[in-house]
Structures are given as C-alpha cells and as structure tokens.
Design brief:
The complex is a heterodimer. Chain A has 14 helices and no strands. Chain A is mostly helical. In chain B, strand 19 and strand 20 form a beta hairpin. The chains are: A mainly alpha, B alpha+beta. The structure holds adenosine-5'-diphosphate and magnesium ion (MG). Magnesium ion binds next to helix 1 of chain B.
C-alpha cells in the first residue's frame, strides 16, 4: 500500500513543477487578457486583482477598433506573411529538390553555402539590404516587407533534408510516367512533403507576423503597418496611456496566430501517411 | 512490342566500374531474367535501358532504333520497382491513370481547375477511366480504386504498380526485383501471376532479380550477371546443367553445387579426395575443381566416406550434410525418400556418376570432360 502512495508522489511533484513553469510562461498572457477585460478605473486602481469586477472586454475592443484601423493592419499582416511564405516555397522546393536528388557539379559546395547562410543573422545584412531597397526605390512598400525574405536558406535546408528521405524510385517512376523535373517538384515532392511544408509554414508565418525589427526599419507610411508595428504605434499615438483598448488590440493581433496554430496542430497530428512508398 | 539490343554497355560511378561491356539481345516477346548477386550492376543495366541512367559507352537499341538521348517516357517502356514507387497521395485509380494523363492531356488540360473547363479533357478523361477500370478488373483491383496506397497490403500495392505499367501498353516491361518486399508465400504466387501476365500480353519482359529460383521458374532465358559482366546467357535448364563458369555453377541452384578440390593427371584422368572419379579430359596436368549437384550424389554406396553432421528434412525431400576429410565445408546430398534418413554422426558412403561431374580450372572456367571407360569399370567394381 505504502508503495503505491510513494509511486504517486513523484508524478504529482513533477506535475506541480511543470504547472508552475507553465504559469510563469503564461502569466503575461493572462495579465494581458485580464487587462483587456477591465475598465480604465480598475486598471489604475491600487489593488491588484485578476478577475475584473466589471467585464469590459467588448467596450475595450470596440474602442480599439474605433481608434485604429485594426482590420487594415491584420490584412497587411496576412498579405505580407502569405506572400513571403508562398514565394519561399516557390523558391525553396525546386532548390531543395535539386540539392537532394539531382546530380550536378558543385552540389556539395552549394549546399555548404546554404548551411553557411543559416548562420548569418538577418540583422547582420539589414543595412546592405536596406540600401539595396533604397536604390531600387522599393522602401516603404509591401515589396520592402516581402522581397528580402523570399529566399529562405532555412526553408531550403529543411526541405532538402525531407526530400532526402523520399525514395529515388518514386522520382524515377515519375520520370518513366513522363512527368517533367518541375512537374516532379510540384506533383510528387510537394504532396509527399506536406508535413515538412506545414512545419516550415508555421515557422515562417509566426516569424514574419511577429517581426517588429524589419517593418520598423523600412516602413514610414502607416498604411503598410504590420500588426506588431501597429500595436506599438497604437500605444504611442492613439491610446496614450489607455491600457484597456491597447491590450484588446494586442489580443486581436495575436488571435489569428493562435487560431492558425490550433488548426495546424491538428494537421500535424493527422500527418500524411508515407507508407504507400514502401 | 520490340526487340532490345545492348552492345558493349559500360558504366562507372566515380572510379568503380559497375558494368564492363554488356552485350545482350532480347527478342520481341521474350521473357529474360537478369540474375546475379546484389551489387553486380543489374539495376544499373535496367536503368540504362529505361533511360534513367546514361551509359558510359555502348549502345541501346529498342526496336532497331538507338535511344541515346531519348527521354525515359519517350522510350515507351514501363518499369515496376522493388519499392512499388506508388504516389502516396494519389488513389489507386489516379496512380494507374498518371501515365495516360501525362501522355494524352496537355499541360493546360492537366491544370486542376482550369483544365476542367476544356472540352477535350472531359473526353480524354472518359477514355482513361475506361482503360484504368479495364486494367483494374484484370488485376482484381476494382474494389480498391478509391483507396490510397497506404491502405493496401503489399501484394495489392504490387498489383497497382503492375497496373500502372500495363495501362500504357509499353513495348517492353522492366521489372526490378518486384517481389523481394513480399513474404515467401505471396512471392511464389506472384511469380505465377507475372508469368501468366507475360503469356497473356506477349510483350518483351526484362526481369531483374537476385533470387535464382525466381529467374529459373519464370523466364525463357536467364542472363547471369556477376561483377558487371554477363557470364552466361541461356535457357534456365541449360544454365543449371551446363554452367560455363564456376561462379554461375555456384550462383544457380539451391542448395549450392558441391565443389571438391581435384587434380588433373598428365594422362587426363581426374582425381578428387585421393580417388579417380572415372572422368577424363584432354587438358594438361593441373589442379581443378570438381562440381557435383546435391541431387547427383548417391548415398549408401560409393568410393567416398563422410560423417553425417546435419540433416535438413524439407518434408518432400531432405538434404544430408556430410563432413568429409579434406573438405572445408560439408558436402550436401539430396535424399528423395525422407523415410530413409541416415542417423546423425553415422558414417555414410557416397559416390557420383561420371556424367554428374562438372570440371572447372583454377581460374573458374569450365573444362570439358567425358566419362573414362576404364575408370567407369573401376567405379562399378568398387560399388559392388
Ligand atoms: N548512383 C550511384 N552512385 C554511385 N554508385 C552507384 C550508384 N548506383 C549504383 N551504384 C553502385 O553500383 C553497383 C551496382 O549497383 P546496382 O546496379 O544497384 O546493383 P544490383 O541491382 O545488381 O544490386 C553497386 O556497387 C552500387 O553501389
Ligand atoms: Mg538492384
């Protein structure tokens, strides 16, 4: 009897520790939810309480939408992240296919360059890229937000690793069936690589939806603002020190990501069975 | 339907020569097996015929036409791969339909949404549907047309791969170890199915396998490939009975042929294990190897003696392993009647008829030999 109690203690302790960790991570998020739901007088009152006495989320949301064109910023975020992701795939998949499955002179050094590219932080190249966009006259536009990220060395690397696992026989079968090399990339490799593309998509979309640094550098006109920039701008210009609507706006801006993640998570779990290959 | 001619095909990867001059002509409608141990270059040769690999030198002709620089799909061959290589995201129907769609629809018509608007696509798709369903019915796949390959058993996937090959009516079929992922029972069943398929289609079949039993049972001719060379090409019975090379003798036949160390005397008589075996040859005095198939060893009487070290009873037949002085590995003898198996450890006399002997020189080349009249008499005296 005492043995079973002892066995129970360990898992309990582990879960307590994990829960505590989760709480620390979630605390700012919870506080944001709480603040977004409070009226102004409660936010500035000296006593700390989590659950608002008066539930003011809808009022705060209404105020946020009234003060700033949140829809516009969300749309900007959508345009930018989707364009970046689509172009990244358009470039990374053929490149990864060539690096993984085609035999050509200089393949090894090229792949080494790709690996090297992963090591370079985007901040390091920010100024040359900025100057380049300036020369092209492309600053302060969607193009400035999208173009620098269209070639993702990480994406090329990830897809190349995945393509390595696709059996050569499948590609040869496609060649026998008369599918061209580009056809193989889009009609054979892409469908089998959906799990990897999804994973890469999550990385890419999250990174560029949340990116603050680059839009801050290249943008001037508020009409191109991406969500994080909009939140920051919102705080400075419209809301002043009015935290309720600010937190409500922040909530609106992270909502698409959270929802998209939940959907993609299900997709992850479903996966795609590759057993047909063997 | 086409005749396929290979002349002096060579291929090397980096510095290793994988194919060292292969010549082979496969007649229209013939079933030829390319058999040899793993890594000897069979798949490479098949891929060169298919156009998936470029030969280093030499020429491939299909139906009399050289096909250098002709793309794989334009050669009008079909290939069945060991791993089946089905498209995992497509249904069985779509898998079989792919080669037809690629051939008959234009790029525009194949587009997912736009293509549907084009009138020609509708007509072609209807033809394709009929043909795919016809092939599926032949292969008993009609019930699975909507399934994905992942939901099929190994044998069914195999049949889908065959279906994808026959639907395009190629001039020749190339098989690369198509049965090696199946379990033993299914493999034997599929052997018969593929042989029947060949009889029905009357098409040229080139079948690659490392399993000599598959090659022996299915094909009209077998081409034994060892180390990148075709060592012997001929009818299965001929290759089995009359191997031109010791490697062929060892590779073909299961269990393996017995090889005894021997010596050719200056008078042409052959000795092994210290006894003359009633075989004579014209050659000069030299060491040789004496090959005798397990089923040609007669146990119970004879000039030699061995100890039973192991008995394999297969039910219908049995193999006795005999430890013989002077031999590194036990000698195998087949016993047709399993009710009369010798005891383990017992001493057993054995011998073999002169016409069972296949002689090879030290380099492994076959030496012609014939029964020596005098020696036959001695053997008979000895066995009385
Ligand atoms: N693409 C390649 N690159 C380098 N070596 C290869 C390649 N393909 C095959 N080989 C080598 O060629 C030899 C023959 O291969 P293969 O034709 O597949 O043999 P088999 O089908 O008879 O088992 C092997 O030693 C293999 O390692
Ligand atoms: Mg092979």
């Amino acid at each position: 009897m005492s043995r079973t109690i002892k066995l129970g203690a360990w898992p309990l302790l582990r879960h307590v520790v994990l829960l505590a960790g989760a709480l620390v991570v979630l605390a700012p998020f919870i506080w944001m939810l709480s603040t977004a739901s409070k009226p102004a007088d409660e936010i500035y009152s000296s006593e700390l309480h989590l659950i608002p006495h008066h539930f003011a989320l809808w009022e705060n949301l209404r105020e946020a939408f009234a003060k700033a064109d949140l829809w516009r910023y969300l749309l900007n975020g959508l345009i930018v992240t989707v364009s970046i992701f689509a172009l990244q795939i358009l470039i990374a998949l053929p490149a990864a296919y060539a690096l993984a499955k085609l035999r050509f002179l200089g393949r090894g050094p090229l792949f080494a360059l790709v690996l090297f590219g992963i090591l370079i932080p985007p901040q390091a190249t920010a100024i040359p890229v900025f100057l380049l966009l300036h020369k092209l006259g492309a600053l302060d536009s969607y193009a400035a937000l999208v173009l620098p990220f269209t070639i993702s060395v990480f994406g090329i690397f990830l897809m190349r690793q995945f393509f390595k696992t696709v059996p050569d026989d499948l590609i040869d079968a496609a060649r026998m069936d008369g599918i061209s090399e580009f056809g193989i990339v889009w009609r054979v490799m892409l469908p089998t690589a959906i799990p990897a593309v999804t994973a890469f998509g999550i990385f890419s979309v999250v990174a560029h939806w949340n990116d603050y640094f680059w839009p801050l550098i290249v943008l001037n006109s508020p009409q191109y603002y991406t969500p994080p920039l909009a939140v920051a701008h919102f705080r400075n210009a419209e809301a002043g020190t009015n935290y309720g609507p600010l937190m409500a706006a922040a909530l609106v801006i992270i909502a698409p990501l959270v929802i998209a993640f939940l959907l993609a998570q299900r997709r992850f779990i479903e996966g795609i069975t590759l057993t047909g290959l063997k | 339907m086409a005749r396929i001619e290979l002349s002096a095909i060579r291929k090397s990867f980096d510095t290793t020569d994988v194919l060292r001059g292969v010549d082979l002509t496969i007649e229209d409608g013939e079933f030829v097996s390319l058999v040899g141990p793993s890594g000897c270059g069979k798949s490479t040769l098949l891929r060169i015929i298919a156009g998936l690999e470029q030969q280093g030198s030499g020429e491939v002709r299909i139906g009399g036409e050289p096909v250098d620089g002709v793309r794989p799909s334009q050669r009008n061959l079909a290939m069945v791969f060991q791993s089946y290589a089905l498209y995992p995201h497509l249904s069985v129907f779509d898998n079989i339909a792919v080669p037809l769609r690629m051939k008959r629809l234009t790029t525009l018509e194949r587009l997912p949404l736009l293509g549907r608007l084009l009138p020609n696509r509708y007509r072609v798709e209807r033809e394709i549907r009929q043909e795919v369903e016809h092939v599926a019915a032949q292969l008993e796949l009609s019930a699975f047309l909507g399934r994905k390959p992942g939901q099929l058993s190994g044998g069914q996937r195999q049949r889908v791969a065959v279906g994808r090959a026959i639907v395009r009516r190629p001039v020749a079929f190339l098989f690369d170890e198509p049965l090696s992922n199946l379990d033993a029972k299914l493999r034997v069943h599929m052997r018969a199915e593929i042989a029947q398929l060949h009889r029905r289609l009357q098409a040229t079949f080139i079948y690659v396998t490392h399993d000599q039993a598959e090659a022996m049972t299915m094909s009209g001719r077998i081409a034994v490939m060892i180390g990148g060379e075709l060592v012997q090409v001929g009818r299965p019975a001929e290759v089995y009975d009359n191997p031109r090379d010791i490697r062929v003798a060892e590779f073909v036949g299961s269990p393996k042929i017995n090889l005894l160390p021997g010596q050719i005397r200056s008078d042409g008589a052959v000795e092994t294990l210290g006894q003359r075996i009633g075989v004579a040859t014209k050659g000069i005095a030299q060491p040789c190897r004496v090959g005798v198939r397990p089923e040609r060893i007669q146990v119970g009487s004879g000039p030699f003696v061995g100890h039973v070290v192991h008995v394999e009873n297969m039910g219908a037949e049995a193999f006795v392993h005999l430890g013989v002085e002077g031999l590194a590995t036990p000698l195998l003898a087949r016993i047709g009647d399993v009710r009369e198996l010798p005891m383990l450890g017992s001493a057993l006399r054995f011998g073999f008829a002169p016409d069972a002997v296949r002689l090879f020189d030290a380099a492994g080349k076959r030496i012609e030999a014939h029964a020596a009249p005098a020696a036959v008499r001695t053997l008979e005296v000895a066995s009385v």
